[in-house]
Amino acid sequence: MFSLSVPAVVALLSLTAPSALAALLQSADDAASQLSSTKYDYIIVGGGTAGGVLANRLSEDSSNKVLLIEAGSSDYNNTNIQVPWLAPVLTHSQFDWNYTTAPQEALNNRSIGYARGKVLGGSSSINYMIYTRGSEDDWNRYASLTGDDGWKWDNVLNYAKKLENFTNAPSVANASSKFVSTVHSTKGPVGAGLPQVTLPIDQLALNAQQELSSEFKFNQDLNAGDMTGMSWTPFAIAGGARSNSARDYVEPALSRDNLDVLVNTQVVKVLKTGTDGDTPVVNGVQFTSGPKEKLYNLTATKEVILSAGAIGTPQILLLSGIGPADQAKALSIESIVDLPDVGQNMQDHPLLTTNFEVSSNDTLDNLTLNTTFQAEQLALWTNNRTGDFTLGACNSWAWQRLADNDTVFKNVTDPSAGSKSPHYQLIWSDLYIAFSGGAFPQGHFLTLISNLYTPISRGSLTLNTTDPFTYPIINPGLLSDEAGFDIHTMREALKAGRRFLGAKAWKDWIVAEYGASANATTDEAIDEYIRANALVVNHVSGTVAMGKSGSTGKGSGALNPDLTVKGVKGLRVVDASIFPIIPAGHTMVPVYILAERAADLVKNPSSGSGSSGSGGSNSAAPIGTSFVAGIASAIVALAAYLL
Ligand SMILES: Cc1cc2nc3c(=O)[nH]c(=O)nc-3n(C[C@H](O)[C@H](O)[C@H](O)COP(=O)(O)OP(=O)(O)OC[C@H]3O[C@@H](n4cnc5c(N)ncnc54)[C@H](O)[C@@H]3O)c2cc1C
Ligand SMILES: *[C@@H]1O[C@H](CO)[C@@H](O)[C@H](O)[C@H]1NC(C)=O
Ligand SMILES: *[C@@H]1O[C@H](CO)[C@@H](O)[C@H](O)[C@H]1NC(C)=O
Ligand SMILES: *[C@@H]1O[C@H](CO)[C@@H](O)[C@H](O)[C@H]1NC(C)=O
Ligand SMILES: *[C@@H]1O[C@H](CO)[C@@H](O)[C@H](O)[C@H]1NC(C)=O
Ligand SMILES: *[C@@H]1O[C@H](CO)[C@@H](O)[C@H](O)[C@H]1NC(C)=O
Ligand SMILES: *[C@@H]1O[C@H](CO)[C@@H](O)[C@H](O)[C@H]1NC(C)=O
Ligand SMILES: *[C@@H]1O[C@H](CO)[C@@H](O)[C@H](O)[C@H]1NC(C)=O
Ligand SMILES: *[C@@H]1O[C@H](CO)[C@@H](O)[C@H](O)[C@H]1NC(C)=O
Ligand SMILES: *[C@@H]1O[C@H](CO)[C@@H](O)[C@H](O)[C@H]1NC(C)=O
Ligand SMILES: *[C@@H]1O[C@H](CO)[C@@H](O)[C@H](O)[C@H]1NC(C)=O
Ligand SMILES: *[C@@H]1O[C@H](CO)[C@@H](O)[C@H](O)[C@H]1NC(C)=O
Ligand SMILES: *[C@@H]1O[C@H](CO)[C@@H](O)[C@H](O)[C@H]1NC(C)=O
Fold it and tell me: Is 436 helix (H, G, I), strand (E, B) or coil?
């Protein structure tokens, strides 16, 4: 139903884009002569979360001429992108690369859908908008792993503030008790805040936390350094609509005559243009409008910056001969530099849903079950940017650690960065969600989503062919660690979620666990359920990791701490590829943060450690689900409304 009905409806919904703005170039072929006659100081590859930040910050200096190249379209104003509640329909849409993982051995050999944004704004235009910075411990560990104090929490907090406009709609009840205003800013470009609509389960969850406070402590603001405990959920949603890097960083910079943005154009390689002493200089790019279309070469006078994301960036590097020399040789690619870490160290957060039947009729399942109600809510969004369509996946949640005396620590060293970093996440959503499919049971539900945030498992990305339009082999290696820490923690997360929902506070709300997980009561049965059903949170990271300066050997990192590529000149990587260890949180804000710092590192190379972002100017799963089935009908209604 989903795949049949949505594409047609999406086309109806696309707002008519205005004719191309001066700096927004829709086609490499049309713009070829303009591009080849311009000297660009910086060429940024990938107009996603990080690329948008760089395009804005580097073009703040009018002496820099900047080109941003994006494979997807410039349709970031599309209504499906703007309406927060419609986020699920963006997966498997024209804005998704539609990657698939290699068969995951520990998940019964299932290959699972792997979404990535393909549109200006990248994954920030298609994600679920959850807004977490990562913990103080995570960032301090990046500083110690790279030997660069500039990655410490105390320093990156300046960038976390620089990027955000954290404000609340007037309708947010008791807002001041729901976040700590001193760790936030209202002056940055990315709008964020707390959910505007109060749900009945919000109070029940608070009551449950108080009842079980020895296990579930309350955390007023998980973006203040300590991520653990139950808290309110912040989102990159402002004025009822999605924030993304296209709207917040690229659009405000489009009026500058020193920025050009070229969309619908895929970079296939970076090019060696010469040598500096013995060191290859790699400051050229090769790009095209599509398979079998004309190829263009262009050289940056200063740097090429790869921001194509944790799949696109290693793919481009491997295609260019920057990566493991043995892999290049096997595909007859001429090696520029042997960097064994490129494409290795892939990490993501495994996800699990379980459903609970509830006795109330007052849940967000209303939006699927009651078309009158749905139409009312859509009208509220369309007219006033209010109502249920401004919501994300949950209003509150908990981030928890395994007990210090958990027996698993007899087998493994704790992979978390420290006591302020959670091992797992518990989300309670006010409706039926089953990302992996199945028919909507036509009732009222609560969905528990329990996810692992400190995986030990590592995977890899490798090329299958030298054709840049053939997808690489993407293997996040989910739950594959030999010690079994990952499946153990997934199992403990589900048990903790059941304990939370088992609090007396829920007794008049929750009827019973529903569906296939309900019978999974023994450890063995839980593991079986996990292997048959786990998916992923879509936080792929770590495939071109930074390490200490110097060594290019295996395990020492492909990037220097300033994100320049080891062994070459003129090339940097700025996106989710760079994390040596995946943050124990959602990854969008960490990417915004690192991109803000990277912009300073590019502008002022000596700013290295201790540079501050404060005072800067602020110009700027395969979803065949019943959840989605509901959303798809919502879109039909929205389309009807707009027409
Ligand atoms: C469905 C989904 C839900 C998510 N939910 C959340 C969430 O709620 N909260 C959160 O914090 N994180 C979430 N994430 C993760 C988060 O969005 C990403 O980690 C983050 O946005 C990655 O930023 P990036 O700059 O590394 O890559 P991206 O934002 O993906 O940008 C890469 C860009 O490069 C372009 N590109 C790729 N290859 C090429 C090429 N060869 N030539 C030209 N352009 C190219 C792509 O089209 C894309 O625009 C989610 C992700 C997905 C997919
Ligand atoms: C997106 O919408 C904004 C605000 O309406 C407008 O200024 C901008 O030109 C639009 N951009 C595109 C690419 O359609
Ligand atoms: C992804 O898949 C959907 C559904 O099949 C399709 O409509 C869309 O065009 C695909 N995306 C891309 C970028 O090809
Ligand atoms: C911050 O957001 C608020 C509310 O959305 C808005 O009124 C204000 O103009 C924004 N400030 C900046 C600097 O963009
Ligand atoms: C582009 O660069 C490639 C690799 O250096 C080279 O083989 C090719 O001839 C160049 N094309 C043009 C048109 O200069
Ligand atoms: C829920 O709605 C159904 C059908 O309208 C009704 O029969 C039932 O009494 C309602 N239950 C509650 C708890 O309101
Ligand atoms: C569910 O629908 C009823 C009207 O039928 C409404 O009063 C209630 O607020 C809705 N609940 C939610 C969570 O949207
Ligand atoms: C459906 O929603 C409408 C509008 O909110 C409400 O009046 C009606 O009672 C709802 N129907 C049911 C069965 O809940
Ligand atoms: C929302 O918009 C409608 C139509 O413009 C208006 O009648 C209504 O009063 C608005 N509601 C709120 C809460 O602002
Ligand atoms: C861990 O400690 C708690 C309380 O301190 C205790 O109840 C529990 O049995 C211990 N667990 C193990 C596995 O030792
Ligand atoms: C620790 O390792 C032993 C031996 O491999 C295994 O039997 C046990 O289940 C492991 N404990 C945990 C908690 O994973
Ligand atoms: C590699 O590419 C070939 C030819 O395009 C294709 O048939 C095969 O399925 C691919 N293998 C993987 C693992 O993606
Ligand atoms: C759970 O087990 C009971 C007893 O074996 C069985 O009747 C029921 O169908 C099972 N439920 C599910 C959802 O598998």
Answer: coil
Strand 279-281 and strand 274-276: the pairing is antiparallel
- Give the DSSP H or E segment for 237: strand 237-238
Q: What is the dihedral of CA 328, 329, 333, 336, to 10 degrees?
A: 70
- What is the dotted CATH code of the domain comprising 19-78+114-194+234-345+463-470+540-604? 3.50.50.60
The half-sphere exposure of 165 on its side-chain side, counting CA atoms within 13 A, is 16
Locate the ligand 12 atom nearest the alpha carbon of residue 470 and give its number: 5
Q: What is the pLDDT of residue 1?
A: 18
391 Cβ contact partners less than 8 Å away, ≥ 6 residues apart: 84, 85, 195, 196, 197, 364
Q: For residue 618, what pLDDT is reported?
A: 33
516 CA to centre of ligand 13 in angstroms: 8
Q: State the DSSP H helix or E strand holding residue 381, giving kind and residue range, or none if neither.
A: helix 371-384
**pLDDT digit string, tens, across residues 38-47:** 999 999 999 9
Is 635's pLDDT higher than 50?
Answer: no
Q: Could you tell me the sign of the dihedral formed by the alpha carbons of 319, 324, 328, 330, in that order?
A: negative
Cα→Cα distances 477→473, 545, 594, Å: 12, 17, 25
- What's the first-to-final CA gap in the chain, in angstroms? 22
pLDDT interval class at 22 (50, 70, 90): low
- Is 349 one of the catalytic residues? no
When pLDDT is averaged across residues 230-237 and rounded to a whole number, the result is 98
User: Has 540 been labeled as part of a binding site?
Assistant: no
Could you tell me the pTM of the whole model? Answer: 0.94
Binding-site residues, ligand 11, Cβ < 6 A: 407-408, 411, 484, 488
What local confidence, expressed as pLDDT, does residue 265 receive?
Answer: 98
Task: Using the predicted structure, report yes or no on whether residue 621 has a pLDDT greater than 50.
Answer: no
Q: What is the pLDDT of residue 611?
A: 36
**622: pLDDT strictly greater than 70:** no
Please, where in the chain does CATH 3.50.50.60 lie?
19-78+114-194+234-345+463-470+540-604
User: What is the 8-class DSSP label of residue 235?
Assistant: B
Which ligand places an atom closest to the C-alpha of 372?
Answer: 8
Residue nearest to ligand 7 atom 10, measured at CA: 362
119 labelled ligand-binding = yes
Answer yes or no: 586 catalytic: yes
Where do runs of H (alpha helix) occur along 163-235? Answer: 200-211
pLDDT per residue as tens digits for the range 136-147: 999 999 999 999
Query: Within 13 Å, how many C-alpha atoms sit on residue 304's CB side?
Result: 29
CA-closest candidate to residue 427, choices 454, 392, 455: 392
Residues with Cβ within 8 Å of residue 545, at least 6 apart in sequence: 341, 345, 557, 558, 559, 577, 578, 579, 580
CATH 3.30.560.10: which residues of the chain? 196-232+350-454+479-533
Q: Which CATH architecture has domain 196-232+350-454+479-533?
A: 2-Layer Sandwich (3.30)
Mean pLDDT of 312-335: 98
Whether residue 556 has its Cβ less than 6 Å from ligand 9: no
According to DSSP, the β-strands at 164-166 and 190-192 are parallel
**Closest Cα to residue 558, out of 378, 228, 193, 313?**
313
In whole angstroms, what is the distance from residue 497 CA to residue 554 CA? 39
CB 13 within 8 A of CB 80: yes
Nearest to 189 by CA among 249, 236, 250, 131: 249
The answer to whether the CB of 338 falls within 8 A of the CB of 358 is: no
Please say if the pLDDT value at position 6 is more than 70. Answer: no
- Tokens of residue 237, six digits: 């949603």
Question: Residues 203-223: what's their mean pLDDT?
Answer: 98
